[in-house]
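Predict the assembly for these two chains.
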Amino acid sequence: MTAHSRAAARSISIAVVASIVVIGACHKKPEVAPAPAPAPAAPTVDSAAIRDSIARAQAARDAALARQRAYDDSVRRANEAATAAGDQTGLRNTVTAVVHFDFDRSELRDDARATLDAKVPVLMANPDLTIRVAGHTDERGSVEYNIALGQRRAASAKRYLTERGIAATRIETVSFGEGRPVADGHDENAWAQNRRDEFEITAGGSRLNRPRT
Amino acid sequence: MRFSTFVVVFSAITLPVCVAHAQDTTRRGVTIGLTYDPTSRPGIAVLPATGAFADSIRTIIQRDLDYSDRFTLVPLESADPTTFRGTTGAGLNYPIFARLGAAAVVQLTVGDGVLHVALHDVGKAGVMNVQDFRIAGRAYTRDWRMSVHGASDEVERWITGLKGIAQTHIAFVVGHRIHLVDSDGAGDEATPVSGNAMSPSWSGVGNQLTYATFGTTSRIMVYDLRTGHSRLLHNATPSHANLTPVFSPDGSSIVYAHADDDGSDLYLVATDDGAPPRRISVGRGTDNVQPSFSPDGRRLAFTSGRVGHPEVYIMDADGTNAELLTSFDFGDKNYRSDPDWSPDGRLVAFQSQFADGRFQIMTISLRDRSTKLLTSEGSNEQPSWAPDGRHLVFASTRSGGRELWVLDTESGRLRQLSRAAGAELPAWSPRLGSSASTTAASRP
């Protein structure tokens, strides 16, 4: 059992309450505990340390809660999408939804994270499902460096998914650099579409299970 | 500099007849009495020739001499050919050529599979060098053209002391296939290499190309130009992306980039596939690609994204002493890549992005890091040096679609090389002494 699913099992009730009360807060980024402050002068150590410790514990609880909310939210959205499009097509669309990048960057934007978040519960619910992430770039810059950049973009998505509990062995990565554009133009509109990760189902996709919270 | 001892600067225009002859101090058996000054372009004429395909051979040699950017081609079309012969023996009517501005005259005689070349020194009023060149294969085939180019390069050496670059190929990519074309743009042919091919690069003697394939079966391959077959470099082809292979100058190894989920690094692998590849760059999760050897094989230039954007670095060939080569202060975009170390070791050519988003070709000196901007029209990328260290081939959008262009870095003269929209990733071969090019020289 993964840490994630243990947490999920423990906190179903929290999740239910949370989803009722603060559904609007789902996109909120998890709060990160601040770095420990340098030790202050002796007389205030105790009270400051206690305050810090309480704050850290609170932040950790908030972060865990936010992660759980995000997960539940992505399950809900995956299921909504599945229902809207007909189960199988919808689930497949969720898995294969493209993510986009900024020029010469491989860091995931917020919209890319949201797209990847939606894939997690479907991948969780279908342990035999394997995918190939293909990194692509726009036509600008070095055609050779762009192969490496595409590889790094694919790796970014893979890392994001594996950090959320998907086995690395289920995710293959490949780069096509600028060699396989989806948009033919030579403007920012075309470039933005071409800077992307594509997700292809390589096995286990014939019958997909709906994720459950 | 080999010409510094010459005391007389030859000018075809102002000193047409009375050329004072310096002592013939050129080395390596150069016998021409012309005084060549690299900053001038002496006039040269190629006589109309007779024999099989003589017109084509003359056209190729004229073009080669023109494209060398070391001569001014003197047209003879307006002159009366009956006046060219001299009154005695093998001589020519030298005053005529002097009046036309020719310092040298090339005389071609085409025999059965042999091209006889005589070079006349107009100032000395005599034949300065002759040689028979074996012409290989059927007319217009690649071997045939290459043997004619070989004659051009020898003529250039007789006059300047430096062999030309006509007898070379440029490998490049169109639509993921590798093409070869002669240095003068003739004979563009796709090789049998297909399937997502990228980044061709020549072996030191020019009999092999190494290249990468991209996509789900990314590989490092070695293509043998004599057999027409490609082989997989087994040890260099684990999963993920393998790219930008180059031969070491001695041909014993190939350095390439391998990109996986932890960025890309440069690896060195023996060409005999004897041992697994050894990682030589320390990218720590960044991208490190596009190695280019110094001519002595002791150092490598390469592109790295280790500071957050691509810049050109140099390091020792074992991966130690890596340092930034290009600096951030020319051009305001932070993107420099595609290094190619010049054959004389003095410069690295690379591409740099400018404010308008376009790339331009630049060089940077290894000695004092001074830079030179060589292009400005269109976007210009992927420079590759000719073996003379003077000409560069690169991909340019200056004519609309992406084509290959050749730049003479000394005069700034440009010519379009390819006629294949989408041509990219050019790699200029070393000099290709064709096995059938020359027979023993005979000298007067």
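Confidence is low (pLDDT under 50) at residues 1-32, 435-444 of chain B. Residues 43-160 of chain B form a domain with the Rossmann fold fold (CATH 3.40.50.10070).
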